[in-house]
Write a structure and sequence with these properties.
The complex is a heterotrimer of chains A (108), B (522) and C (110).
Chain A: E1 23-25, E2 30-31, H1 32-40, H2 46-53, H3 66-77, H4 98-102
Helix pairs in contact in A: 1-3
Chain B: E1 2-9, H1 13-24, E2 29-32, H2 61-74, E3 78-80, E4 83-89, E5 93-98, E6 101-112, E7 116-118, E8 131-133, H3 134-143, E9 151-155, H4 159-170, E10 174-180, H5 189-196, E11 202-204, E12 206-212, E13 219-224, E14 237-239, E15 243-246, E16 250-252, H6 255-260, E17 264-267, E18 270-273, E19 286-288, H7 298-315, H8 321-338, H9 363-368, H10 373-376, E20 389-392, H11 402-406, E21 412-413, E22 423-424, H12 435-439, E23 445-453, E24 456-463, E25 474-478, E26 484-494, E27 503-510, E28 519-521
Parallel strand pairs in B: 1-2, 1-6, 2-3, 6-19, 8-15, 9-10, 9-15, 10-11
Antiparallel strand pairs in B: 4-5, 5-6, 7-16, 12-13, 13-14, 17-18, 20-23, 21-22, 23-24, 24-27, 25-26, 25-28, 26-27
Chain C: E1 6-7, E2 11-12, E3 18-23, E4 26-31, H1 36-42, E5 49-50, E6 57-58, E7 71-74, E8 77-81, E9 92-94, E10 96-97
Parallel strand pairs in C: 3-9, 5-10
Antiparallel strand pairs in C: 1-2, 3-4, 5-6, 7-8, 7-9
Classes of the chains: A mainly alpha (108), B alpha/beta (522), C mainly beta (110).
Amino acid sequence: MISVDDKLKEIGKYIPQPDDDMLVCRCEEVTKGEIRQAVHAGMFTIEEIRRFLRCGMGLCQGQTCGKLVKGIVARELKVSPAELEPAVSRAPMRPMEMEILGRDGGDK
Amino acid sequence: MKRYDLIVIGAGPAGLSAAIEAAKCGMKPVVFDENAKPGGQLFKQIHKFFGSKEHRAKIRGFKIGDDLLKEAEEYGVEVVLNATVIGLYPEKEVTVKIGDEVKHFKGDAILAATGASENMVTFKGWTKPGVIGAGAAQTMMNLHHVMPGQRVLMLGTGNVGLVVSYQLLQAGCEVAALVDAAPRVGGYGVHASKVSRCGVPFYLSHTIMEAEGDEYVTGVTIAEVDDKFQFIPGTEKHFDVDTICVAVGLSPMSQLLAQAGCKMLDTPGGYIPECDEFGQTSIDGIFAAGDVSSIEEASSAMIEGRIAGVSIAAAAGYLTEEERKEQCGALESALGSLRKGMFAPENRGKILKETEEGIEISTNLLAKGYVAEDEITRYPGFVKKAGVHPVMECTQNIPCNPCQDACPKGCITIGENITSLPVVDVEKDCIGCGMCVASCSGQAIFLIDEEYEEGYASVTMPYEFLPLPEKGDTGTALDRSGKEVCLAEVVSVKSAKAFDHTNLLTIKVPKDMADKARFFQR
Amino acid sequence: MGRIAEHPILGKAPEKDTVTFIFDGKEMEGKEGEPIAAALKAAGVMVHRYTKKKHEPRGIFCAIGRCTDCVMIVDGQPNVRTCITPLKEGMKVQTQYGVTAKEEGKGAGL
């Protein structure tokens, strides 16, 4: 797994690629280029990138793009995707109305 | 808070099977499913399943689904639909959205059988309307009776891509091409062959460059890729299509298990919980079964579910250790036989050169989707003899054997090893009943009679399309690649309940076409 | 596109009542209880919505309620997954722009 020390790793300069404008996260409309730039800005974990760009935080909750984002980040860092910690799984696992979630009184 | 003996998440093949086994032992399980109907993806599977009798081979997926629902009802399994599990906690508590409320439940045991989601690849224009998952195509045509498109291009030659392509043809859609970036067909050769002989071209080592169209898909351009998956300039091919189907694998939907804190493994097959042989995760009492723990066929998911159900019942004291061992033992051997052969989990990613029998693999099948004429003769199912006899174009070791039981005359042998290639015994007298043809889930058996008439041979093939040709119809015979080879006349069309919608179509072709003609086109 | 009246394996499509619904002000027909998306597909409608940021068209993608690409405004409520929402007589279905129904919002950075 990526540790804090890895932040010092030299991954080279961000060089634009012809398909940088390709949408990766369909829900939040985040492109490959944005994800690559975020890695080069020092965000080496899926968690950081997700919070920064919101990819995987839209209505589908990363169902479609989760694996794609991981692949792009891994390629930028020149590691295998398995070396990257996946995004944290949190409830609610499916999109739902705040009104309903807010009424959840817990164990009653 | 309401408490249950067992809470099952997901009413698909694995979840329902587990709940049924637990209920059989006297437990009172509940199954939550976010969908409006139970059965998971089983009701979209309209093809005949592989395996042997104990795996319910040659029965179509949706029929297995029907039976599973009946069994669940019989044992009083409570299935709650439109109930979305939104959280799973290590204390074996789940939060479920039901209607406008979030409800909390506790289980003595919890089984996650949440299945899988479809993988995707990106290409220019992949977000356009008209680019859909292969599962979406199945849902539209097989559940809702609506055509997903008129003219479709399929990306992916795994079993899903192949099976869905065939189903698209059955639904009356045109399949423009099957495309895969890999240099070899990923799924069963028999699935590829039945699509190929209908005239669908395969483009291996090709992938999509761009989905075209302003508001929605009106065309697609594919191109060849090199061994580093980079496009080779000048190899572009364009197709006018309204739909692009993507079938590039599945990933386990294991988020709930990860949230609960189960120990997870990042494998090439996806992010999966670490489970013991009974499906228990690292958290005592939380189990996983089916695609969520590793992507396999629905037949395997059902057995895995049953093993988990039995184990959960035993852990709760509903079965003695002896009873558990006996029941699990039988289930494990059934599961073991499904995991044999060329497509076994241990062979994933390997390039096999020959069959278990030591016969060279058909390279044409892997590269183009059909066995070449000069390759087919080396397999034990391909025989020549006087009079009508089966010709079995089954060339890969897959766990499947209904054909040997189908023949009333004992012409076909697979033997003890379920993955062995079928052997045709030329000494036994084939009566031309066609039971073998209809029993083959891979539609790989033909009846050939080279002495049908002076100068003419007859070829009987499985036929699952509408409109069904009639005796006397004339048309064209296509070879294994879908190429037109000669004129053909329909001399017999047989449909029987025992054939389960696989009609037997017999065509008359010139004698020298007996080994070539494999499909009929009006 | 169109419907599959008779299928070689599944037989004739189950008989369902025909209902009328309104899609972007136009009257359309579908089968009662089928997903809204199936009725639109059968009628040849491909675009369900335009995205918020880039105003790009989207339609059916997963068809089982997971990807949320097919969301539309149904009876005034936005973000309704049309692939799993049953069609009813008189339903008002509108193309969704960002998260609203206003077409003039297109390009205005909703």
